[in-house]
Amino acid sequence: MSTTHAPYEKVFVGKRMKDLDAILLRYPTKQAALLPALWIVQEERGWVGEEAMTEVAGALDITPAYVKGVVTFYTMYHQHPVGKYFVQICTTSPCLCAGADKVTEAFLKHTGCNELGVTSPDGKYTVIEVECLGACGFATPVQINADTIENVSADKVPQILAGLK
Ligand code: FES
User: Fold this and answer.
1) pLDDT tens-digit profile of 65-86?
2) Which CATH number characterizes residue 92's domain?
3) Which positions ≥6 away from 153 have C-beta within 8 Å?
């Protein structure tokens, strides 16, 4: 059985190369631009794979191992493809006491994900639990992509999902 692997297409071409060049102008060294460079990759591809890490390393004159160390340190970078909507629910103790487990159950049910970390069959959602989102007084906070929604309860989940564009 043969395995086919599509050739890697570079991220930093055309507009994305210009974006990187503009970022590099703002930093004292190329290495210092690593986080925003990775962000460009994630915006473009939705995740940061090994080949993209190698491309970033080449663009910034650093080693792929260094890039991987940074990607694996920050949970905001996805090392695997995720759904269009990446749902992060705080389930640290204060939010858990306020019903975060019920919120999680509701998201898993209404997105069709059914399991944490698994992308829904339609490719739209991935739901994970995270540590404190820094909104402990507004339990349960849920971050969907770059937006944080506070005071989420299980009964509000269908309406939140319906409002996503
Ligand atoms: S414990 Fe949930 S936001 Fe802090």
Assistant:
1) 999 999 999 878 999 889 999 9
2) 3.40.30.10
3) 99, 102, 103, 140
65: CATH: 1.10.10.1590
Ligand 1 in contact with 131 (CB < 6 A)? no
Burial of 134 (0-12, 13-18, 19+ CB in 10 A): exposed
Total domains in the fold of the chain: 2
Average pLDDT of every residue of the chain? 94
In the reported structure, the alpha carbon of residue 93 is separated from the centroid of ligand 1 by a whole-number distance in angstroms of 7
Ligand 1 binding pocket includes 132 (Cβ within 6 Å): yes
**Cis-peptide into 140, omega within 30 deg:** yes
Q: With beta carbons less than 8 A apart as the criterion, state whether 152 and 140 touch.
A: yes
Residue 135 CA to ligand 1 centre (angstroms): 5
